[in-house]
Write a structure and sequence with these properties.
Elements lengths: L2 E5 L3 H12 L3 E6 L5 H9 L3 E4 L4 H4 L4 E4 L8 H8 L3 E3 L1 H6 L5 E6 L4 H14 L4 E5 L5 H7 L4 E5 L2 H5 L8 E4 L14 H9 L10 E5 L3 H9 L5 E6 L7 E5 L2 E6 L2 E6 L8 H16 L4 H10 L8 E6 L2 E5 L6 H10 L4 E5 L12 H7 E7 L4 H7 L5 E5 L2 H11 L5 E4 L12 H13 L2
Parallel strand pairs: 1-2, 1-4, 2-3, 4-5, 6-8, 6-9, 7-8, 9-10, 10-11, 11-12, 16-20, 17-18, 17-20, 18-19
Antiparallel strand pairs: 12-13, 13-14, 15-16
Helix pairs in contact: 1-7, 6-11, 6-12, 11-12, 16-17
EC number: 6.3.2.9
Subcellular location: Cytoplasm
Function: Cell wall formation. Catalyzes the addition of glutamate to the nucleotide precursor UDP-N-acetylmuramoyl-L-alanine (UMA).
Amino acid sequence: MKRLVVLGAGESGVGTAILGKKEGYDVFVSDKGMITEEYKNVLRNFEIEWEEQKHTESKILNADVVMKSPGIPDKVAMIVKLKEMGVSVVSEIEFAAKFTNAQIVGITGSNGKTTTTMLTHYVLEKGGLDINMAGNIGDSFAKQVAENDAPFYVLELSSFQLDGSIDFAPHIAVLTNITPDHLDRYENKFENYIASKFRIAMNQTEKDYFIYDADDEVIVTYLKNHPIRARLLPFSLTKKVKNGAYLEEGNIKITIDNNEFNMSTTNLSLKGNHNVKNAMAAATVSQLLKIRKATIRECLENFHGVEHRLENVLKINNVQYINDSKATNVNATFYALDAMKSSTVWIVGGVDKGNDYTELYPLVNEKVKAIICLGMDNSKIINAFGNCVDNIVETQSMKEAVNIAYKIAERNENVLLSPACASFDLFKNYEERGRQFKEAVREL
């Protein structure tokens, strides 16, 4: 019997344990932190052995395969040791993909991947495909493969999940964009992070498809120097492409082997140029999977977006409060500020991942009236924007931040929570941060 050791008992870890058990592995789960009661009960129900607040070497080093949670860096001593011993260390996505024959659409990128994943799933499901959604969203991929496998999956993939892939090959891969993010995990080398994203195409063949943003210099340059085997389908707002998607006089045009799709961008439910790109990517996937054009159009007109992503919360005294808690890097915040049509009070801060704020200067100068810092250490934000904005306030809680924003913002202005940072200093995750923002706004 092969031994599977799972490091980290979160959603992906517990899902992998369930699948491993079902596939006849001897399974052991180890978590350095505390395991939630909910997950402990699942492990007990499946009679899976587990430990918390420690990693017992003797129970881990005898593994045939180790699945590590995306949150554990490669340079941790235990991982280094396992690799030196020749033990295969994989991600949940790599492990689970071996046990399904499904056609997989894999979506990655620094920004836009959640919206694109949910939008793609929405169109494909409405188009009649029996399709599951997993990856960074909802129930883990492994758990779904174990308990309700489907013929199609759309997976939202982070660079950490791709780092642990060896043979994983989606039939359709989407790369939304690449901007510096998580550089703390990649030795502060942007090229390492870029290579990590491109692992999504590493095992694709000539029968597969690679959909990407042709306006993104980083992607275009990488493809020139590292050609991939899959068939390329670019999308662009600025140039005409022969096969793929482009914008012409306010219309999205998609061509795949002389099969054409047209739609006016004015009818898109999600506003902003970045959402035109997300729509292009989702529509290209849908074209490939033979969804009716009328269905694609209808879905792009009706899709209402993702919680914590430029989500309009309430209008109070003619001030619009907007929750963009999902903006955990500078580029995501760039899109948010770019979408603001009037003067804005900006709530920003958290755990800095090596951010470079310079690309935000023009937008901050043009649109931001005041900055409210929300983090344990705000010195970098204050230094970065001290010359752009007169009014910078430091706060230690969401309630305080929202109350100050309420005092500063005037009629027809916006209050935008778009942190550009991870949430781990004051909050459990970006969802909790967004929920606290919405509660604080409702209490005004």
